[in-house]
Write a structure and sequence with these properties.
Layout: E1 2-7, H1 10-21, E2 32-35, H2 39-50, E3 65-66, H3 70-82, H4 93-107, H5 114-120, H6 132-149, H7 151-158, H8 176-188, H9 193-206, E4 216-220, H10 227-236, E5 241-247, H11 251-257, H12 271-274, H13 278-283, H14 285-295, E6 300-303
Parallel strand pairs: 1-5, 1-6, 2-3, 2-4, 4-5
Helix pairs in contact: 3-10, 4-6, 4-8, 6-7, 7-9, 9-10
Length: 309
């Protein structure tokens, strides 16, 4: 089950998390997993938990808890399920970079690569030719981000459909990207992480022991979760208790936005217009998007009320 916890104060969430962790796992030697977005959050959360766990008088201890980032947790899960060591992954950043560099050198004169050719210049005496490495590095990072945030787009590219992953065709000045990606995919010769993701999630749902993780997981304080992270967490929740803890500034805003369908494109997002408070409307985009994405897959939502100010 995937449970979404929200509160106006992070301290309230930490206290509620401590209540959950106070019930031991079936195996006392198995570490708890509490994923956090930054080391500072880990230190703060450890201090808060240590005032509750182990002793009712505020002098306890927080031990045997692992605090991986959401990216590390998901990468570990995918690695164990797929059986691919990150160091040997043909789609690791450095390998994609070198492959992309080779592809760029071979195709820069192709008519469809005119945008790329203009950026890199022509002729050995053109100073722009020195951009090859930085361009390949940028393209490799783009492909990594696409695989994480828009995996369906790469699956469409693999199928020969040059779309944005949401059913819309790419503009002509962008079609060089799927062509470059297709050539990189051909030279690497193995499925990309985006292609493997559906099978990985299917395995997690059908074989809970395919990954060495405890029966309870928490993700505390994320400000953003990518599409592949959400897919993996949702799949893990099929046989495990997955808790996501997010600070949310306004119960009223939550109730207002709960009835508005999530927008697939940011330009179509009208949730800011539904928020009456001008400060919330202008500064709450991240939390509004987080509510839309996690709220759509959560099995249960809990609001933890904090102390009166």
């Amino acid at each position: 089950m995937l449970t979404l916890h929200r509160a106006e104060r992070a301290g309230t969430l930490a206290a509620a998390l401590a209540d959950v962790l106070s019930e031991p796992l079936p195996d006392a030697f198995v570490p708890e997993i509490v994923s956090v977005p930054a080391r500072g959050v880990e230190r703060w959360l450890t201090q808060r938990l240590s005032s509750v766990l182990g002793a009712p008088d505020g002098d306890g201890i927080a031990a045997n808890i692992e605090f991986p980032s959401p990216a590390r947790l998901v990468a570990r899960t995918i690695s164990e399920v797929d059986g691919i060591d990150p160091d040997d992954d043909p789609w690791s950043h450095n390998r994609v970079l070198w492959t992309a560099l080779s592809v760029i050198d071979d195709c820069r004169t192709e008519p469809w690569a005119a945008v790329l050719s203009k950026h890199l210049g022509s002729g050995s005496d053109d100073h722009r030719v020195g951009r090859r490495w930085s361009t390949a590095a940028h393209i490799a990072e783009l492909f990594r981000a696409y695989g994480s945030q828009r995996p369906q787009m790469l699956r469409d590219w693999r199928a020969g459909r040059f779309t944005d992953g949401l059913g819309q065709e790419l503009d002509d000045d962008l079609t060089w990207q799927p062509r470059i990606w297709s050539l990189v995919r051909e030279r690497i010769g193995s499925p990309s992480p985006a292609e493997r993701l559906p099978d990985t999630c299917s395995t997690l749902r059908s074989e809970p022991n395919a990954v060495d993780l405890p029966s309870r997981l928490s993700v505390f304080g994320p400000t953003r979760l990518t599409a592949d992270q959400l897919d993996i967490l949702h799949a893990l929740a099929h046989h495990r208790d997955v808790h996501i803890w997010i600070p949310h500034p306004s119960p009223s805003m939550w109730a207002t936005l709960a009835d508005i369908p999530a927008a697939t494109r940011r330009r179509d997002d009208v949730t800011a217009l539904a928020v009456e408070h001008p400060l919330l409307a202008s500064l709450s985009r991240d939390v509004r998007e987080l509510q839309a994405t996690i709220g759509s897959i959560a099995d249960h939502t809990v609001h933890h009320e904090g102390p009166e100010p």
